[in-house]
Amino acid sequence: MKRKSIWLVIALTVVGVCFLLMPIGHADRLAKTNDVGDPALLGNGHPLGKLPAVLSATKPRPQIEEKLVPISAPAVAFAVSDPVRDLPSAKAEVTDGSQTIEREGHEKNELNALEIKSEKASAKKAVSIDGALQGTKPIETETPSVPSLTFDGLADTDNVALIGGLVAPSDENLDVGPNDVVQTVNDGFRVWDKNGNPRIGPKLISSLFTKLGGVCATTDRGDPIVLYDRMADRWFITQFGFTNSQAPPFHQCVAVSKNGDPTGVYFTYDFITPGANFPDYGKFGVWPDGYYMTVNQFLEPGDHFNGVGMYALDRKKMLVGDPTAAFIYFDLNITVHPEGFNSTVPSDQDGLEAPPAGAPNVFAYLLSDEFEDPGFNTDSLRLFNFHADFVTPANSTFIERPESPVPVAAYDPRNPPGRSEVKEPECNTATGAAWKRWSRVRPSMLAG
Predict the structure, then answer these.
(1) What pLDDT was estimated at residue 156?
(2) How confident is the model at residue 126 (pLDDT cuts 50, 70, 90)?
(3) Do residue 73 and residue 214 come from a single domain?
(4) What pLDDT sits at residue 378?
(5) 31 and 116 co-located in one domain
(6) How far is it, in rounded angstroms, from Cα 114 to Cα 418?
């Protein structure tokens, strides 16, 4: 009986010791597991105190989304334009200062040429790599295919009749509809049919906003964009406006055609962008619920780079000429995103198939290992969903997609500074390389 009692005491003592040791073992296991529940990470030799640095070096982490508060404001002015075909094709030279006359050799919108980010010291010794370079010729012949149609677009000399001077750079772009080709440049626009025959003479972009009045009607500051909205068979033309580039207000002047005829009537809007951030180098995309816009922001006065502004304009209201059309804006400034967002682009519906109902617009931002800080120094694309709620703007969101950043083939974005770094063949002039971003994202990139 005593022997049994002794063994019972020993057994109870062992059980008691095990209970006492269990919390210690649990705490020890927690110490070996990181705060995202991945024990393998620390198993690779990374101490717990360095966990944030390890995660940062592995993949850029989305910033705290609650810091991104949507801001909404309606257009400050609205008007219906005269038919474009009836607008004057030339403007007398103005000497009272309300219209800036650009002379030959004068740089227009110098902010576009600023080096927003500098090459990192570690990249100076790096070898330039093009991971997408093909080792063999994709086609057997050296003879390029012949275009089905070519014709001359707007020339810089057209600005002589429009404003009495020349403009540099042209910032030209165009879009094509079922029957027409529309081109915009600093500081004019023109329409051709698809056989290359002019439908109108060159027009000053500000003349489109004459009925609107104000800055949009009296200045041509440049960075124009034209888009064809194939879902609605409409044309979209815009440029920014300001009286003083170093002080707000800053304007985005937007015109949407009343129908599919680009030489007809337009609904015109004047939107004032928030705060003292100058909205430079705007890029636009057409989406079912909105016209989306990105701008590089420069805090004024002083031209201090301050990230990117993301905008959605109320497309549904603008298509019917509703004066209450508003924008929704997210400010991805340097304080919220210290890594320095710049030159981001929205997606644009160009194909025959419309995006799925309710799909957010996808914004893309290109990263490189030569220019980005640690944690973001990879050759990849960061992708964000912009959901715009024009009924309740406060419900709008701008959130990084789960698969972001998406790796891309290794590339090297370094190029000499300035606007004349690219030599042109068979002439003695040079042009600038706007490598920082393409015009807009094609939705086909986002399949799956």
Answers:
(1) 86
(2) low
(3) yes
(4) 82
(5) no
(6) 8
**Total length of the chain:** 448
Residue type, 11: A
Is 198 contained in some domain? Answer: yes
70 and 50 belong to one structural domain: no
* Each residue's pLDDT tens digit, 101-120: 433 333 455 655 555 666 66
Share of residues in the chain with pLDDT > 90 (%)? 49
Q: Report yes or no on 141 lying in a domain.
A: no
Closest CA to 130 of 448, 435, 375: 435
Kindly state whether residue 145 falls inside one of the protein's structural domains.
Answer: no
Calpha distance 432→113 (Å, rounded): 9
Report the b/e string of 313-337 with b at 16+ CB within 10 A.
bbbebbbebbeebbbbbbbbbeebb
**163, 248: one domain:** yes
Residue 144 lies in a domain: no
Q: Which of 21, 159, 168, 122 is nearest to 371 (CA)?
A: 122
Q: What is the SS3 assignment for 239?
A: strand
pLDDT at 311: 98
The amino acid sitting at 351 is G
- Per-residue CA distances from 152 to 146, 163, 192, 201, 388 (Å): 16, 21, 10, 13, 39
The backbone torsions φ and ψ at residue 72, rounded to the nearest 5 degrees and listed phi first, read: -130, 140
**Same-domain status, 22 and 86:** no
Mark whether 11 and 156 lie in a shared domain.
Answer: no
Domain total of the chain: 2
Q: Which residues contact 322 (CB under 8 A, 6 or more apart)?
A: 314
Dihedral sign of CA atoms 246, 248, 249, 255 in order: positive
Provide the pLDDT for residue 427: 55
Report pLDDT digits (tens) over 338-360.
887 788 999 999 888 888 889 99
pTM score > 0.90 for this model?
no
Give the end of a domain, one of 33, 55, 77.
55
pLDDT tens-digit readout, 172-207: 899 999 999 999 999 999 999 999 999 999 999 999
Q: Buried (b) or exposed (e) across 171-194, using 16+ Cβ within 10 A?
A: beebbebeebbbbbbbbbbbbbee
Domain match, 7 and 85 both: no
Which domain range does residue 238 map to? 63-136+150-446
Task: Tell me which residue of 326, 330, 343, 447 sits closest to 392, measured CA to CA.
Answer: 326
